[in-house]
Design a protein that fits this description.
alpha+beta; 6-stranded antiparallel beta sheet; 23 helices; 22 strands; 15% strand
Length: 662
């Protein structure tokens, strides 16, 4: 005989050895399953769901925030036997109401931009113990964690804990941590170019879809947007778009099927060549100020004024955020690819096509033997109309200072003069450097004139008319290796290569949920050792003091790190004098802090060149200018090592140039 007086007993999670339901059907007592402790998801997923669906009753809607429910499915069978099927949902409601366990809010992470380590805490309680925090960090290290990511998280935790009453035992508040981390990240906004300019580049690889260009902008002002988009404001005499906060850009085609986006080019002019290093100098009224160290901040404050000091301090902080993407690795391009994945998913695309290495080279005219022509005669337009020109080939005898133009198929608009280039350097084997002629102005141009040096450095591009695919070229390796590898790390399905529109393309599937997921700021390949993502608030209050006490170099690596930092900080045309001044600053800072020289140059917000592209050049020694510059740096480092180096006063021209102040 079944006892109709069913009783429900509330229990706590630590009392799970007690059956939560006092249930006494005489003929079913022995068949009652043993109740075992289970996690919330396991209980909800296998408990209520199994019991109700097995009995043909719809499962009640439960959210992750629902209280835990402990029950024995046999109870459900008993309820059915006594009360009938209609009472089963009520039984579930009764159980849900009886277990009144407080549900703690869980950490939801950041919405748009996050880091790999911060995402590891998603789903945990909003407040966790230091032990729980360290367990997650240690696990992430074993899986592979970039230093810049870990430094940023640890620095943020330390800053938060300084405000806690008991900072050594206080719990880690994950929402506060996320807010602190978010302050140091660089959000990017995709801005469509209203009048795309570069559809002629790689036109053979564009099909019958819709062509477009996207510029990614950050909150930080840069000048790199002028490299490819400055002509929008002057071309054909009308005002166009400006991109003063340029970070990177892509060219793409939305294909006719409506579901596929083909990326033709992923590029960042900000982190190419020495463009990022030039961002250290910025305009402040009539002055040109330089950023980089607390000394720059203090000298600007003392010699120009408080507002100048604040401007240098802010610029230093901004560039420190961007410097995490300065590397020989394509960190900026991979960040742009991750942004593109999210943008494609939000636009309803399920597939992205990325050019193979060889196709990418062809799109950009690298190795293309038919990309440039040499006109015969002074008037370019007349020569083109009359067919009075010859194609440049690998065996063509090139001359520095010679004007060449892109082939008629590549010319934009009605004025071929705007597609003329001046050769600035010959690299051999069909490779050369050239700068757009309209950048240098009209009339006779003497490339040796110092007034052209800045423009040549900033706007020169490398071309290859050899007809061969250089498998070591940055563009080749980015598209053939780095982007497909990044896609796999993101968990995307890289299906392989497909042939379309005269080229080969990596086919990558994009799940729709990617449109709602945050982009990881620092995912991707490894980065040069020592780049710091975490920032310190710099409030200089001391006098600038140069101390001739020479600290000792610890070892050869210590010497090389300092030398490479000086190499990166020094401008190309102020080498030895400025190098001595920078080393003097490093020595001064080292003597004040009592740390090693190597530790000084690695400190956040001290020397932005450390670990960057110029820093890496010192070790690679790829060309004669680099070798010559390195010899000067090595000379003064040897003086330091031998104890004969003499510290110098800081030259204020390092800090600001332009009109002198009273």
């Amino acid at each position: 005989m079944i006892n109709k007086n069913l009783q429900f007993t509330t229990i706590q999670p630590d009392q799970l050895q007690v059956d939560p339901f006092q249930f006494y059907p005489d003929d079913m007592m022995k068949s009652t399953p043993q109740f075992l402790p289970q996690g919330q998801q396991d209980i909800i997923g296998k408990g209520i769901k199994t019991a109700l669906e097995y009995k043909g009753v719809p499962m009640p809607k439960l959210t992750p925030e629902s209280p835990q429910m402990y029950f024995d499915p046999t109870v459900m069978a008993g309820v059915k036997a006594v009360k009938g099927v209609s009472q089963l949902p009520k039984a579930a409601t009764t159980i849900k109401g009886f277990i009144k366990q407080e549900v703690k809010p869980v950490f939801q992470g950041l919405k748009n931009l996050s880091t790999k380590l911060l995402e590891k805490f998603r789903g945990m309680p909003e407040e966790i113990t230091p032990q729980q925090f360290n367990e997650i960090v240690n696990k992430a290290r074993k899986e592979g964690l970039r230093k810049v990511d870990e430094d940023l998280i640890m620095k943020s935790v330390q800053e938060i804990r300084q405000t806690e009453p008991d900072r050594f035992s206080a719990k880690v508040n994950l929402p506060k941590l996320a807010a602190k981390v978010e302050e140091q990240l660089v959000p990017l906004t995709p801005i469509p170019v209203k009048s795309p300019r570069w559809s002629n580049v790689g036109a053979d690889f564009i099909g019958d879809g819709k062509y477009g260009e996207i510029v990614y902008q950050s909150p930080i002002k840069t000048s790199a947007g002028d490299v490819h988009f400055q002509w929008n404001s002057t071309r054909e005499g009308k005002r166009g778009e400006a991109f003063p906060n340029y970070f990177s850009h892509i060219r793409y085609e939305d294909m006719a099927d409506g579901k596929t986006r083909k990326i033709l080019e992923t590029q960042s002019d900000l982190f190419q060549k020495e463009n990022f290093a030039r961002e250290k100098d910025f305009k402040f009224g009539k002055q040109t100020l330089r950023t980089g160290t607390p000394e720059h901040i203090q000298v600007a404050r003392e010699k120009i004024g408080e507002k100048a000091g604040q401007a240098v301090e802010k610029r230093t902080s901004d560039l420190q955020k961007l410097s995490t993407y300065e590397s020989n690795d394509p960190l900026a391009q991979l960040r742009t690819f991750r942004e593109e994945v999210k943008r494609a998913a939000k636009d309803g695309k399920d597939t992205i096509l990325i050019p193979s290495g060889e196709t990418a080279m062809k799109i950009e005219g690298l190795g293309d033997p038919n990309h440039f022509i040499r006109v015969n005669g002074a008037n370019i337009e007349d020569a083109l109309n009359d067919g009075n020109y010859t194609s440049l080939r690998m065996n063509s005898k090139l001359k520095i200072g010679e004007t060449i133009i892109e082939t008629p198929d590549n010319i934009i608009g009605d004025n071929p003069e705007l597609d003329a280039w001046i050769i600035t350097d010959i690299l051999g084997e069909g490779k050369f450097k050239a700068v757009p002629k309209n950048i240098l102005g009209d009339g006779d141009i003497n490339l040796k004139d110092p007034i052209y040096r800045g423009a040549i450095e900033q706007y020169s591009e490398t071309f290859d008319i050899s007809g061969k695919a250089d498998t070591q070229h940055f563009v080749y390796k980015l598209n053939e290796e780095a982007i497909p590898r990044e896609a796999r790390k993101m968990g995307l399905n890289v299906e392989g290569k497909v042939n379309a529109d005269n080229g080969d393309w990596w086919k990558i599937s994009i799940p729709s949920e990617r449109g709602k997921m945050p982009v990881e700021a620092f995912a991707g390949l490894g980065i040069g050792a020592g780049i710091q993502g975490a920032l310190e608030k710099v409030i200089p209050s001391r006098e600038i003091r140069i101390d001739n006490k020479l600290p000792q170099l610890q070892d050869e690596n210590d010497k090389k790190r300092v030398a490479a930092t000086i190499f990166g900080e020094v401008g190309n045309f102020r080498t030895e004098k400025e190098a001595r001044e920078i080393l003097s600053v490093i020595i001064n800072r080292t003597n004040e802090t009592g740390q090693s020289l190597s530790e000084t140059v690695q400190e956040p917000n001290q020397f932005t060149a450390f670990g960057g592209e110029e820093f890496q050049k010192y070790f690679q020694q790829l060309d004669e200018p680099t070798k010559n510059k390195s010899k000067i740096i090595d000379k003064i480092m040897n003086e330091l090592e031998s104890g004969t180096f003499k510290t110098t006063k800081i030259n204020l021209k390092i800090v600001f140039r332009g009109n002198k102040t009273k």
